[in-house]
């Protein structure tokens, strides 16, 4: 079932996409909660999780994590990790569910409107000029890779000098 071929009104497409994200992200959160319960059975882990530093970190995530959860839906590749972390740190449902609703609504809006238009544009471009489309795609991937490598190189000397001054 290709969403690009759907002939539903945008509102129905939005509802379908919202349902998908609630099940996916909410399921990841619940998996995190189950993992939290399971891992606490190990004595060493329980000792760490009962400590004051860990409790403070959990309280901070619980208190300020909802905006992070909501904004994670505007990223690619970060949603799953954020939702899993919210579950494993024990974020309360009364904070998580509204964040999921807001972030999921934005995600569904983007993908039911503009997101699919981008896919359609790339598909049309590929039909018209496959070589040019693939070439531009490769240039884009190489540019992003170069940017990431460049940013990493800038950060490495700062980390090394910080660790050297600490010793």
From TrEMBL:
Pfam families documented for this protein: VTT_dom (PF09335)
Keyword vocabulary terms for this entry: Cell membrane, Membrane, Transmembrane, Transmembrane helix
UniProt-annotated location(s): Cell membrane
Topology with respect to the bilayer: Multi-pass membrane protein
UniProt entry tagged with the keyword Transmembrane: yes
Transmembrane spans: 6-31, 96-119, 131-151
Major site of localization recorded for this protein: membrane
Superkingdom of origin: Bacteria
Domain VTT: 11-115
UniProt KW Cell membrane keyword: yes
Family to which the UniProt record says this protein belongs: Belongs to the DedA family.
PANTHER family (alphabetical): INNER MEMBRANE PROTEIN DEDA-RELATED, INNER MEMBRANE PROTEIN YABI
Name this protein carries in UniProt: Membrane protein
Lineage: Bacteria, Bacillati, Actinomycetota, Actinomycetes, Micrococcales
